[in-house]
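Need Carboxyltransferase domain-containing protein's 3D structure for a figure. Predict it.
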Amino acid sequence: MAAIIATAEVSTSGLRVTYRTAGDRGVLIEYGQQFPVDLGLNFFVHAAARHLDQHPVRGILEVVPGLRSLLVHYDPSTIGQAGVVAAMDECHEDIPEPDSLVLPSRRLRLPIAFDDSTSREAVNRYRISSRPEAPNVLDGNNIDYIVACNGLPDRESFYATVLETEWWNAFTGFYPGLPSLLPLDPRSEVFAPKYNPARSWTPEGAVALGGPCLVIHPIESAGSYQIFGRTLPISALTRRPRAHRIDPILIYPCDRISFSRVSEAELVELRRQVFEGRYDYDIEPGEYAVAEHCSAVRDEQVAAEAERRRAARQAAHGLVKIP
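Structure prediction for Carboxyltransferase domain-containing protein:
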């Protein structure tokens, strides 16, 4: 099978689409360019997935959204690669302009304790056992490195950047329940290189930054993103009273996350309530009109400030050592 099956262009938007072979039962569809990261592509991905859910195609079994891709799992005895491409081409033409898109999207509010002791423990374990001279762990934390990478004046500026926007769950992946979050406000974009090599241990609930994405670790695991804080558990592998839902995963694709700052002592108490089944997560059902993001991006003052911060980040990135 050829690696690239076909390419196309969506007539309504000019969006470039590339179809790739993904084994003998899958087609990987890539939208647009890899860089710069464009939330508009992610909105289109989720709109395509939703369209297929509402207008099923015989033989297409499942679709899995990525940052700017859609993995289509199909039954080859019912539909072939060419049929998948034709069905998806038709799907793409039916998706409305971005300003008209409305996606299912809940609001979740989570507490966060910055620079907590458990996060520092993960950094120190790595510094002692893996790579003591790594530039991102020299001070026993990753936060100062994140601040330097983004050209920010101090830690408080970084914390404010995390707190001042809603974070869009672009996709869930790498392992079950791990959300990859991007800021809906372009002024809150941040970036950090990943560990090299990766950590062998990351605490559950750790909030970390890698590339342009924030993640929340649903379980203890290895990890390579720069840790800067901790929040509540976002997965429930054993059912508990008043937990998220029947589904063990708290955060869905297209959910919007906002963080509120708490002390480490306050977070410890809230986590205790979760484990004892006494905590109610702050979840608000709803939808998200993509026009809100489009309006913010087009605002001249917002765009100017986002570009100023982007330029400062790019200048700073050239001055820091890459792990």
